[in-house]
Structure formats: C-alpha cells, structure tokens
Design brief:
about 230 residues; alpha/beta; Rossmann fold; 5-stranded parallel β-sheet; 3-stranded antiparallel β-sheet; 8 strands; binds cytidine-5'-diphosphate
Length: about 230
C-alpha cells in the first residue's frame, strides 16, 4: 500500500495541517496543502488591488497564476509564479478574504485540476475542505477533523503568537466563524464530512494523540504496513 491516498478535511484550525505533515513523514507520503493554494490566489488578488468580490477578475487571476508546492527539508513550501509565498499567505489580510475567493467555481476548477494531478499517482496526504467529497472521492482513507470553536481560537492565537503576530482572540473567533459559515454554505463543493470519513474530534486531544488515533485506524484498515 505504498501509494496510499489520504484525504484530510475539516474546518479552520482543526489540526489538519499539523496532522497531515506528521502523517506524511511517518508514512513516507507527500503532503499537499490545498488551503495554501486558495491563499496564494487570494494573496495575488490583494497585491494586484483587485476587489475579492469581483468574481470575473478573480477567476482570471486564478487562470493566469502558476501555483506549485514542494517539500524543502521537511517543510512544505508554496510557490506562486515562482515566488516562495509560504509566509505571506498566512497574513491576517489573506485569512480574512480567502473564503470569498474560494467560493468561486471558476477558481475551484483551476485548483481542483492541479490537486487531482498532484494526487494522480497516489502516495499523498491531501488536506483541505472538499478533498474526500469532491477532489478525491476515491481516496483510500478519509479523515474529517473537527474541534470546538473555543479550542480552535486558542490554537490559532497561539500559532500566530509563535510567528510574532499579535491577534485578538475576539477577531480570530469572528474570522473563523465567518470562514466556517462561507465554507460550509457555498453551493460548489462545500465543507462537509464524506459519508465514509473517519470523523475525529480533536478538542481534547494533543497532536500526538490525534496522530496516534489516525495511525491506529489506518492499521485497523490496512494492516501493519500501510
Ligand atoms: O489553515 P486554515 O485551517 O486556516 O485554512 P486553510 O486550510 O489554509 O484554508 C484557507 C481557506 O481556503 C478555507 O477557509 C477555505 O475557504 C479555502 N479552502 C477551500 O475552499 N477548499 C479547500 N480544499 C481548501 C481550502
């Protein structure tokens, strides 16, 4: 089972990225962060001074942008038109607008095509919102991670603090709530668990515990050598 395809979905700050990274390392798979792709398009839109509400222009930008990801020394980097934007796409400005950009079917079509191409040979851990339901409905193993809003706010504030960015918990709460609402209610490929997903509530779990739960489930389904 060396070419396993794993899909990890869930709302913002539910623990997907960290889990995907550790799982990929443990299993020798390649991580793919689809949220980073939507963030990269959003960054370009903002830099060009385009209104994120202008669907036509935003879709144009998505079609003309080259996005790529590569693991460098165990760290997943995202490139936009050749520039390493891994840090820039995490800014509060991008976080605030990304769900508006990700709502447009034209943007999603461009990025889903890239995501399917990256996953076509298997051997990947792909994380996002619609991976198990829409991008890779035939994935070998689907995980849907969730956590309470309060816990997700705490995690995001801590994560930003570690990067030297001070954010108010109240603002973070509003942003997460807004993104959850837009992501879950959009008509094209909304955020929801796939019928066959392994649903994991990480509210009370440490990172080690959540990774262990997924490893146990993998072992149960695929035996000792997934
Ligand atoms: O890291 P965080 O959990 O804050 O979010 P992310 O995974 O970087 O995704 C940022 C945003 O991109 C999400 O809030 C969604 O609006 C959008 N997204 C999406 O629509 N579909 C995906 N497969 C991945 C992300």
């Amino acid at each position: 089972m060396k070419n396993l395809t794993i899909a990890i979905d869930g709302p913002a700050a539910s623990g997907k990225s960290t889990t995907a990274k550790i799982l990929a390392q443990k299993l020798g798979l390649t991580p793919v962060d689809t949220g980073a792709m939507y963030r990269a398009i959003t960054l370009k839109v903002l830099r060009l001074g385009i209104d994120p509400g202008d669907e036509e222009k935003v879709v144009e930008v998505a079609k003309e942008t080259e996005i790529w990801q590569k693991c460098v020394d165990g760290v997943l980097k995202t490139y936009m038109d050749g520039e390493d934007v891994s840090e820039a796409i995490r800014s509060p400005e991008v976080s605030e607008k990304v769900s508006i950009v990700a709502r447009y079917p034209g943007v999603r079509k461009v990025l889903v095509k890239l995501q399917r191409k990256l996953a076509e040979k298997g051997g990947v851990v792909v994380e996002g919102r619609d991976i198990g339901t829409f991008v890779l409905p035939d994935a070998d193993f689907k995980v849907f991670m969730k956590a309470s809003l309060e816990e997700r706010v705490k995690r995001r504030v801590k994560e930003m603090k570690e990067k030297g960015i001070e954010v108010s918990p109240q603002k973070v709460r509003e942003e997460l709530q807004m993104r959850d609402r837009i992501d879950s209610s959009r008509s094209f490929a909304p955020l929801k668990p796939a019928d066959d997903a392994y649903v994991l509530d990480t509210t009370e779990l440490t990172i080690d515990q959540q990774v262990q739960k997924i490893m146990d489930e993998l072992k149960r389904r695929f035996g000792d050598d997934p």
